[in-house]
Write a structure and sequence with these properties.
CATH topology: Methane Monooxygenase Hydroxylase, Chain G, domain 1
Number of helices: 3
CATH superfamily: Ribosomal protein S20
Oligomer: single chain
Shape: elongated
Helix content: over 70%
Radius of gyration: 17 Å
Order of helices and strands: HHH
Low-confidence stretches: none
Distance between the termini: 57 Å
Length: about 90
């Protein structure tokens, strides 16, 4: 445990920030899963709508630097490719 007051404060802030980032990361994963689920269901119109909303979530997470921008781009690219491959 930290001994200096400023270090104790930083430790408290880190715990709070970690909880916030975890919530956002979870929201992103849920958005990705919902797109995959819609693609698996086979409804292209619904999958496209869910994909559009999930893009915003993924971009927001990347803008906040919770995930790297290239990782966000990769997620979106793979989801778009899966959507395009729907028959």
């Amino acid at each position: 445990m930290a001994n200096i007051a400023s270090a104790r404060k930083r430790a408290r802030q880190a715990v709070k920030q970690n909880a916030h980032n975890s919530t956002l990361r979870s929201r992103m994963r849920t958005a990705i899963k919902s797109v995959r689920k819609a693609i698996a269901a086979g409804d292209k119109a619904a999958a496209t709508a869910v994909f559009r909303s999930s893009q915003g979530v993924i971009d927001t997470i990347a803008d906040k630097k919770i995930i790297h921008k290239n990782a966000a781009s990769r997620y979106k690219s793979r989801l778009a490719a899966a959507l395009k491959a729907m028959a």
